[in-house]
Amino acid sequence: MTDSHNSGQHKDREAAAAEVRRMWQPTPSWTQPDPNAVPESEPEAADQAEQPDALSQDFPGDAWSQPAAATPAEAPQTQAQPWAAKPADPEPEAEVEEPADPWRAAKPVNPAPVDPWSTPTAAGDPWKQQNEAPQQQQPGLSPAAQHFFPQGIPGQHAPQPERQVSYRADELLQALPLPREAPAEKGVRSVLRLRPGTAERSERIARATAATAFRRPVTITVANPKGGSGKTPTTLLLAGALGQARGGGVVAWDNNELRGNMHLRTHDTNARSTVTDLLQAMTMLTQPDARLGDVGAYLRHQVSGQYDVLTSATTTYAQIEAKDFDQIHRLLSRFYKVLVIDTGNNEGSSNWREAMKASDVLVIPIKWKSLSCAAAVQMLEELDHQGPDAQRLIRRAVIAVSNGPGDVNKEVEKQLRPYFESRAAAVVDIPTDPHIAAEGPLDHSALQPATRRAALELAAKVAEQITIALNVPR
Does residue 79 register a pLDDT over 50? Predict the structure, then answer.
């Protein structure tokens, strides 16, 4: 009687437990298919690969969806209850020991509510496998939003990294807007206050290039062994263009060893002092307290070109040699930024060779005449055998073509222009000017506009080559 009564109570409890499990079973509308499900035809494999259902994960405190705790001795033989994964009522097993009362199972006190959407998904959940990478790409979205927008919210871009703001002075100055270009100064454009034309803009660029601030005093040598090739006028044109562009600081030096003609081509502004007088006062001028005004007393200042002139000796007993050149060069380099040296016709003289050694840029004046061009070609060939420094000087050379009336031989120009263009850095044509052809003192303000523009272009080309020479170690 007692056994049948106990058996009846056991069946009632099993039926109540099955009804409760049926009520808690999740509906198909939000239950996701189990990717590890095994077909009904393999019940044994299903029992071996039994996985906890979604209810047991979402509600870990439910004792009905978990198997009863087994003793340590029975743990290896214990299997999961079949109703944990199947909704059908299991048949009660006969002669099974009565399990512990599930209503009295230990439960956590005041368990915290569990959000099924924020609960970590099982390792085999396809939603996790599909959305794991997008979640890493979109860290700013919540987990629920990442399910619906794995690629990010439409119309919104990923946040860009903040740009590092620099407060360096040079970068801030570069970021400032460029000053507005000054209006034209010539022609109709100047009246209408318009921008300058192409020719005027090119002239402004050439003037700015000629005014380049060099980091040390520089030396420009004008040389051609042929007399009458235009060395002295080219020297004065170049010195005047540089002086006007730079606002002074330029000296033209007649380095002829004896009796050059620069004193005839410049305005006499003092007591006719020459290089001989300068050498006699060298002891006083080389003192630490010597001033520019002290040196200027032995030079001629040309107002129109804003440059000074040191003329050559005019007497036979005062021939300039190498040691004299070195003293004068050091003295002038103390007080002037640009030295333009006119040379004589003797390549073998010591002062001529010293001028080549001190040169940063070589200017070769020629005329399109056979003798003038032949002497220049021979000089270039001779310098080409003097070593690497002389070869670099040839590559930085600038050819200044200055023709007088009737000096142009078209056949010579056709044959030799390509040669000079290939050997030198640039070839500048200076037009024929009546003021230069008059062979009197050269006044820069009396030149024709085309001649002044050509002289400024020559100065710009020379300044470019000086910049290149200063950037190359000697």
Answer: no
d(CA 384, CA 261): 29
- Express each pLDDT in 410-459 by its tens digit: 999 999 999 999 999 999 999 999 999 999 999 999 999 999 999 999 99
Q: Where do runs of H (alpha helix) occur along 164-230?
A: 169-175, 187-192, 198-210
* Sequence letter at residue 417: R
Give the C-alpha separation, 463 to 470, whole Å. 11
Query: pLDDT tens for residues 238-282?
Result: 999 999 999 999 999 999 887 788 989 999 876 678 899 999 999
Please give the pLDDT value at position 155: 59
DSSP 3-state of 339: strand
Phi then psi dihedrals of residue 399, to 5 deg: -90, 125
Handedness of CA 43, 44, 50, 55 (dihedral sign): positive
Residues 234-262 as b/e (b if ≥16 CB within 10 A, e otherwise) read bbbbbbbbbbbbbebbbbbbbbbbbebbb
Phi, psi for residue 400 in degrees, rounded to 5:
-110, 110
Name 153's Cβ contacts closer than 8 Å, sequence gap at least 6: 141, 145
- Supply the angle between the helices 370-383 and 410-423 in degrees, to the nearest 10: 20
How far lies 73's CA from each of 77, 105, 167, in Å? 9, 20, 75
